[in-house]
């Protein structure tokens, strides 16, 4: 379905981003990976799926590097047809203890980076009259939790930005939507499980159960594979007129 298209997925060396990159590659899209840590492993996983893969190591907190990454992607593949704004970090602390530099980092990586990548991707998408912008927000783009002030602000922000971009592209073949996952067991969440286990003297299993039990009625993690399939749907012709939605896949979290 996506043969001949190019997808750039930010923060795709791990977790949800890698799951989405692989789901789009299974549909035939060439992939530009981005993110820190091991690069060769994710690159090999994606190229096994029979598509072309490139990597750019832009730090998503730096607008100049985002600009370089967008130029690199269109230089390599001609155009970015699908942009998945996924890179993100978390910091957990009460407002009065929240280090201002962590606030700045969360807002830069989880929110401003998506603005920069989107503004740079849109002209070519509009010229081709086809494009998909998929913002990986969070159930925290819809509801709040204590001790996550920067994350919740950034994720509510990205849901708002999704709606603006959807309105500005409404009469074109470009769509912009957000995905709002509940808990997904990636390194970002394992750190929160570890912190709970250490603070309370719980086993990993007990801390995991308590973490799910607090928020997620299904008591199940959403998987990167499931989120990848939702991204594939947004890229399909059936989703041509799905615009500006914030679609939660959260085990019932936001239904409470
Ligand atoms: P993860 O830690 O597994 O992956 C994050 C990715 O972002 C990695 O590839 C990392 O290298 C990259 N990254 C981090 N900082 C970066 C930077 N400055 N520049 C470039 N890349 C950077 O996390 P994840 O759980 O897969 O999270 C991915 C997205 O999904 C985030 O936006 C997160 O907020 C969102 N999300 C996660 C969950 C969850 O439960 N895991 C739930 C809802 C939303």
Automatic annotation (TrEMBL):
Domain Ketoreductase: 5-227
Signal peptide stretch: none
Taxonomy, superkingdom: Bacteria
Any Pfam family the entry gives: adh_short
Alphabetized GO MF terms: 3-hydroxybutyrate dehydrogenase activity
GO biological process: monocarboxylic acid metabolic process
Coiled coil stretches, renumbered: none
SMART domains per UniProt: PKS_KR
InterPro entries: 3-OHbutyrate_DH, KR_dom, NAD(P)-bd_dom_sf, Sc_DH/Rdtase_CS, SDR, SDR_fam
Similarity-based family: Belongs to the short-chain dehydrogenases/reductases (SDR) family.
PANTHER family: 3-OXOACYL-(ACYL-CARRIER-PROTEIN) REDUCTASE, 3-OXOACYL-[ACYL-CARRIER-PROTEIN] REDUCTASE FABG
Full protein name: 3-hydroxybutyrate dehydrogenase
Organism: Ramlibacter henchirensis
């Amino acid at each position: 379905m996506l043969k001949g298209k190019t997808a750039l997925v930010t923060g795709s060396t791990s977790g949800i981003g890698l799951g989405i990159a692989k789901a789009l590659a299974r549909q035939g899209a060439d992939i530009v990976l981005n993110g820190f840590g091991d690069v060769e492993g994710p690159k090999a996983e994606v190229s096994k799926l029979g598509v072309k893969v490139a990597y750019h190591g832009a730090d998503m907190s730096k607008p100049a590097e985002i600009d370089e990454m967008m130029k690199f992607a269109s230089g390599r593949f001609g155009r970015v047809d699908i942009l998945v704004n996924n890179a993100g970090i978390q910091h957990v602390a009460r407002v009065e203890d929240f280090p201002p530099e962590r606030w700045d980092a969360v807002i830069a990586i989880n929110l401003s980076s998506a603005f920069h990548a989107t503004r740079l991707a849109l002209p070519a998408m509009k010229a081709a009259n086809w494009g998909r912008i998929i913002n990986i927000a969070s159930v925290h783009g819809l509801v709040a939790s204590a001790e996550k002030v920067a994350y919740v602000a950034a994720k509510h922000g990205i849901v708002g930005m999704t709606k603006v971009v959807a309105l500005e592209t409404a009469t074109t073949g470009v769509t912009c939507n957000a995905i709002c996952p509940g808990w997904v067991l990636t390194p970002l969440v394992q750190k929160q499980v570890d912190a709970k286990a250490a603070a309370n003297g719980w086993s990993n299993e007990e801390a995991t159960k308590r973490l799910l039990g607090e928020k997620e009625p299904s008591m199940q993690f959403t998987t990167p594979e499931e989120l990848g399939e939702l991204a594939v749907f947004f890229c399909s012709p059936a989703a041509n007129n799905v615009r500006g939605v914030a679609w939660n896949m959260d085990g019932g979290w936001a239904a409470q």
